[in-house]
Amino acid sequence: RLYESVADLPDLEYDFLVVGGGAAGNVVANRLTENPKFSVLLLEAGTSNLEISIVPLLVENLLSGPNQFEWNYSTTAQTGLDNRTITYPRARILGGCTAHNGMVYTRGSAEDYDRWASITGDSGWSWDGVLPYFFKNERWVPPAGNHDTRGQFNPAVHSTHGINFVSLSGSRWPVFENQVIQTTRELPEEFPFNLDFNSGEPLGVGWFQSTIGGGERSSSARTYLGPEFIQRPNLHVLLDAQVSKLVGPKTKSGIVSFEGVEFKQGGTLFNASAKNEIILSAGPIGTPTILMNSGIGDKHKLSALDIPTVLDLPSVGQNATDHPMIFASWSVNSTQTIDNIQDNTTLFNEAFAEWNKSHTGPFTNVPVTHILFTRVDANSTVFENVTDPAAGPETPHIEIYLSTGNGPLPEHFITFGLLMLTPTSRGSITLASNNPFDPPLVDPGLLASPVDLALSREAVAKAYRFVQAPVWKDYIIAPTTDLGTLTTDELDVFIQTTASSSGHIVGTAAMSARDASYGVVNPDLLVKGASGLRIIDASIMPMIPTAHTQAGTYAIAERGADLVKGRWV
Ligand SMILES: Cc1cc2nc3c(=O)[nH]c(=O)nc-3n(C[C@H](O)[C@H](O)[C@H](O)COP(=O)(O)OP(=O)(O)OC[C@H]3O[C@@H](n4cnc5c(N)ncnc54)[C@H](O)[C@@H]3O)c2cc1C
Asked: Where does FAD bind (predicted)?
């Protein structure tokens, strides 16, 4: 059941406490309560699901400024971004970032996960190990509008028996789609067609896949806590419950355990306790913040804030990794772009009415048609002084998502989103004070390393080469900003003054091998040096996958839930 007030909860002691109802937390709460013997309390700081968030095209409205469904973070000044401080969206709502994200569904390369397995010494984190968990999460469905999808995906690498809807786009842009597919024919060496970038081999251009079912956003709140699950008598979800810290630390034979958590609702502090385990799923910013507030972290940094150290784990909050993102756009000789809808109230209302009536048309997705995953050229000097950060030769360095629109009318535009998938920069989450309700300092380290800046230049060059295929000759009118003619210095200024985050922060409570001298959790996701305390969310990723991060997080959550169930049979 969903509870808005702590006074309505049947109890304050449960077998499991799950902190954070985002991508991972809702999966864990669902899977643990499949066993009727387990009682679970999930504590979520935000409110219930947001109606507007189910309309895919309206995603921008959710992210357009500070609001009550957000943590409203800003970063520290980013040296790699011309010292800018940028807003850093994180959802504070049931569903977490799956309730406001771009819904892009990409898994990454098989090599990404094989590298996780080699870092952790646990083959369960290899591609072959996690693929069954991608399948357990995913329910592949036909796109909105049900168009013929033959040749647009490979059914063998998808599952129809999971919980979270995934589909090809129901929002169609035939002229632009044809431009893209024709490019793969004209420049097949550099930009080959890839039937399915979610096969573990993402390189090439593939049709866009999203966490959308029947034209509606598929957030973890709507699926894993959907009507068929939320009625379970052993599943309790408390909203508006911000967890500040773990309470009741005890140390036995050098191993720390905790009784439960402290949380705040309506200005009052409460405690809840766990008989079996406390599972932190508060995401890559929330989870390390709770750990440090509880005295788990670097003892020097904790004592500087007068927080007594319970467990000295210097890696807590470190290793923050995100994909920097920039855009390139062009005005085009076609009226078939999303600009019509985004910039013309009558057409907007007509398209929204279509969505309301039949869940078809442009409102069923963002206006992206394909994604290109590509590597820097073999003769590139970008990585001449560093080891190639990609997990292997089949792993991309760059993603370019291909989309219509940029406005304003009367011109029409196309926009490419360029993501640097293998950043070498690392940032951190640290505490600003010893008040657990103060926001932490968020430093995603975007473009902090010159290597990442050089990679961004390569991404721009790739995007410009893509539109040099003959098919674009009469289609493109002019670049919005001509990045192709800038000097290296000018291009660097453009990148540093316009780059932003893709929302993909991971790695702040990273998993490492059991005997490693760094890291926060062991391969079974239990916190090193603690018992009964596990972390199951995107913060445990040891390296960022070359993908948008929700699919990987869902796989972690599905496997994490199995690890917990295996321990408490
Ligand atoms: C703007 C944006 C766009 C994105 N677009 C995409 C995309 O298109 N495709 C994709 O694959 N990925 C995307 N992502 C990333 C993806 O959504 C995240 O990687 C994923 O949701 C992480 O899951 P999580 O469970 O670790 O954290 P979250 O989903 O962030 O969930 C954490 C939850 O914990 C709650 N919480 C935090 N602190 C506390 C506390 N102290 N007490 C109680 N509750 C707490 C939060 O309110 C939240 O509900 C995007 C992210 C953002 C921000």
From this structure: 101-104, 243
